Structure to design on (187 residues):
């Protein structure tokens, strides 16, 4: 989740030094720093449900799943984002300390205040990542998942609007019932 920007402009170096001392995470876009707001219980539950299922599924593979404390670095000059769930199968990312640079799959759990940004500007930035194959948006207030998949030079949308649907994340060949993502989630 992203909140209002901090009032002063920062260079990337200033941001990285400052961010290392903060108690909450901040995303960085073109010199502006945005405090990450706290998520709701449903938001957290959905993220945890997916990350848990992915961790089990990916065990023993070259891929690694991370949650919202891990930064995705689009370039050395930014932007820097903290997606809810990210999967990388890159050898360098497996040993990374400062953030993921070659994600294969990025998942954002939506809130009413961030949905527009996640579908719009953030997706425009994410599309620049050459390794990214899927971008998934999960609604935290109704049962709905939108999955954007890279196909040649374009992105194709697959929507999963029904609780009986099976979500297929093609980038890592993972399938699960939509109900698993919303297990024990109060909508």
């Amino acid at each position: 989740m992203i909140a209002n920007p901090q009032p002063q402009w920062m260079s990337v170096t200033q941001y990285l030094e400052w961010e290392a001392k903060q108690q909450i995470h901040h995303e960085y876009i073109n010199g502006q720093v945005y405090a990450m707001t706290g998520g709701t219980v449903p938001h957290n539950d959905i993220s945890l449900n997916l990350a848990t299922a992915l961790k089990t599924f990916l065990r023993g593979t070259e891929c690694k799943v991370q949650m919202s404390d891990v930064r995705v670095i689009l370039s050395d000059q930014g932007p820097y984002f903290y997606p809810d769930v990210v999967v990388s199968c890159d050898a360098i990312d497996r040993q990374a300390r400062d953030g993921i640079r070659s994600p294969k799959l990025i998942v954002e759990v939506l809130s009413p205040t961030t949905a527009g940004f996640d579908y719009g500007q953030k997706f425009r930035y994410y599309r620049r990542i050459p390794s990214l194959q899927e971008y998934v948006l999960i609604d935290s207030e109704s049962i709905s998942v939108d999955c954007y998949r890279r196909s040649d030079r374009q992105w194709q949308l697959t929507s999963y609007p029904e609780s009986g649907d099976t979500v297929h994340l093609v980038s890592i060949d993972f399938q699960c019932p939509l109900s698993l993502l919303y297990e024990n989630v109060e909508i």
Notes: Residues 100 and 174 are 21 Å apart (CA to CA). The longest strand covers residues 103-110. The chain has one domain: 39-181. Confidence is low (pLDDT under 50) at residues 1-5.
